Structure formats: structure tokens, C-alpha cells
Amino acid sequence: MILINAQKHIKVKLWHLIIIAALSVVARVILLGDYIGHDDAYIYLRYAKNISAGHGWSFNPGEPSYGTTSPLWTLILVFGNVLGFGAVNFGVLISLLALFFIPIIGYYLISLFTGEDIKSFAYACSLATLPWIIRWSGTVMETTLATFLAMLFVY
What we know:
The chain is mainly alpha-helical and 155 residues long. The chain has helices spanning 2-9, 14-32, 39-52, 71-83, 87-114, 117-128, 131-136, 143-154, and strands at residues 58-60, 63-64. It has one domain (37-154). The chain is 72% helix and 3% strand. The protein has a two-stranded antiparallel sheet with strand order 1-2. A hairpin with a 2-residue loop joins strand 1 and strand 2 (63-64). The longest helix is centred in the middle third of the chain and has 28 residues, at 87-114. 33% of the residues are buried.
């Protein structure tokens, strides 16, 4: 009974969510450093490089092909090249931003269904520490952005 009454008095503030989200990004950077992904990441980077250089949608210049599994992500990486950030830096930035916002949107999503701060905060914490989200974040892969956008769509 005391626990139930205590839960009703717990109010999660935005700064609580920001701390959890920031810790998730810090954990990713500490645990995985500059790891940008494996084979698929390099495929995206090759296509982005060729598109940016005017060689069209190709893995090898002059040989049009459609070997990327996410054309939108490829175009996002091209945009990073065009802006001068570079595809790797831009992809990592987008991925880490998505990682930051996943626990926050997760909190608000569960709040809609439960109306309870403590359950919503527990869900946000579980998202912030989920190994697969941390593992794929900060890579030059679309996984973290796709997760964030799917959650945003449901919200």
C-alpha cells in the first residue's frame, strides 16, 4: 500500500529524461568508440560517395546498381556529403541524435497508454540501456533512426 501511494507522488521531469538519454549516448561512445558498423555500412558509404561524385546510383562508378536496402538512408548520407560534413560524420550524428530521443519518445508513448510516470520512466530507462539499440546507434546504419521514427509514428 505504501509503495502504491509513493508511486502516485513521483513526478518525472524533463531533465530526468534528458539525463537518461544523455547517459545512453555516453554509454554508446564509451563502449563502442568509433565503431561505424560492418559490411552494410560500407555499402551505404560507397553508394553515397558515388552519388555525391555524380556517378549515379552505383556501387562501382559507371555500373548502375540498386544494392542498398534503404534508399532514404543512402540519400541522408549523400546529404551529409553535400553539406560538407561527410557521410560518416553525418550518419553517426543522425544515429546518435536518434539514440538520444528514443528514451524520451518512449517515455511519452507509454505515458499515453498508462498515464503513470513511474512505468513510463522505467520503460524509458529500459530503452536507454537496451543492448541492441546501443549497439546499432552511432553506426552508419539506419537502425536507430528507423526505431525512432517508428516510435514517433506510433506516438
